[in-house]
Amino acid sequence: MYKALVFFSEGFEEIEAVSPVDYLRRAGLEVTIVSVNLDSPYVTGAHGIKVYADITLSDYLNKNESLPDVVVIPGGMPGATNLASCKELLELINKINDENKTIAALCASPAVVLAKTNALKEKAWTCYPNMENFDEFSKAYISGHKKNERVVTDKNVITAFGPGAAEEFSMAIVEKICGKDTKEKVKEASMQR
């Protein structure tokens, strides 16, 4: 069974975090919701929705689990900046990238989180409008930015531009991990046209 980690931090964009969890589970992946809060599995989204994560990042790392097949990094503010400030998460993303496993991020997170890792190196990507100039990290990857693209897949990285693309983003992950047939089954079962 394929494994996925979805990272939640205070201020996450709810639709961007919950949609991938839902669609990946529908596709048959083992999905673990990971809180990057050091001391609590409770995480509150940007619009006040509270989530109880399956595990904290520190507990996950202490279990010495093998790397997942895919990691998902939702956006939202201040969620993306909170994720970007988590050194352990950035190190994990680099390890996953080094193993050529799938990294998926949307909204602000490609520019705010992935740009602080090696994941965007020599890859095309997209993000929430105007976030590509967020800081010196993302400017280093500006040549790969595909402005106004809803979802961009390049090698092992999938990025999307915001909450309105959460469903397409989730389906792109399903297709990358499970194949087109599974994607079509999930789409049909969820009444997507």
Mean pLDDT over the residues: 92
Instruction: Give the SSE order as H and E letters.
Output: EHEEEEHEHHEHHEEHH
What is the 3D form? Answer: globular
Report the strand count.
9
Describe the structure.
The chain is an alpha/beta fold. It contains 8 helices and 9 strands. Helix 1 (14-26) runs parallel beside helix 7 (166-178) and helix 7 (166-178) crosses helix 8 (180-189). The chain is globular and about 40 Å long. It starts with a strand and ends with a helix. The model has no long low-confidence stretch (mean pLDDT 92).
Essential attributes:
193 residues; alpha/beta; 7-stranded mixed beta sheet; two-stranded antiparallel sheet; 8 helices; 19% strand
How are the SSEs placed, and which strands pair?
Layout: E1 3-8, H1 14-26, E2 30-35, E3 42-44, E4 50-52, E5 55-56, H2 57-62, E6 70-73, H3 79-84, H4 87-98, E7 102-106, H5 109-112, H6 136-139, E8 151-154, E9 157-160, H7 166-178, H8 180-189
Parallel strand pairs: 1-2, 1-6, 2-5, 6-7, 7-9
Antiparallel strand pairs: 3-4, 8-9
Helix pairs in contact: 1-7, 7-8
